[in-house]
Amino acid sequence: MRKSKVVLLSVLLMGLPVAFSAQAYSEPAPAAPQSNANTSYELKEFYADYKHFAIGDIAPDLYRTKEYQIDAWKIRHLPAPEAGSHWTYMGGNYVLITDAEGKILRAMKGEIFYAH
After folding, report:
1. Contact 99/85 with Cβ under 8 angstroms?
2. Which residues contact 93 (CB under 8 A, 6 or more apart)?
3. If DSSP codes are grouped into helix, strand and coil, which group holds residue 97?
4. What is the per-residue burial (b if ≥16 Cβ within 10 Å, else e) of 68-79?
5. Which residues pair with 100 in a beta bridge?
6. Rounded to an integer, what distance in angstroms lies between the CA atom of residue 63 and that of residue 57?
7. β-strand 104-109 against 42-43: which pairing, if any?
8. pLDDT at 106
9. What is the DSSP string of 10-55?
């Protein structure tokens, strides 16, 4: 009698994960809003070269050079740069800075490249 209870219990426990996983896969995932897809990638602050940066800060001269300037912003799913600004790459993130002084206008997570 005791052995049959153990066998029955083990059969029930083995079937439990299958029942839960089947239920989890049968429910449709909620749809993500498409209106402002870029807002989920927006950053207010970030780190680059072990230094904290926020919107309004001045980017170091290194990131204002042509080597860091991103001309192919459309391929990376970034919005068009404003007049007098350009995208650069800082600490794994895309950062919109002014051409004249390097003031940080906007920052986007680097994962936006894989967004679509």
Report:
1. yes
2. 43, 46, 48, 107, 108, 109, 110
3. strand
4. bbbeebeebbbe
5. none
6. 13
7. antiparallel
8. 95
9. HHHHHHHHHHHHHHHHHSPPPPPP-TTGGGGGEESEEEETTEEEET
Per-position pLDDT tens, the chain of length 116: 566 655 555 655 565 554 444 444 444 444 444 445 567 889 999 999 999 999 999 999 999 999 999 999 999 889 999 999 999 999 999 999 999 999 999 999 988 777 76
Give the type of residue at 107. A
pLDDT computed for residue 111 by the predictor: 83
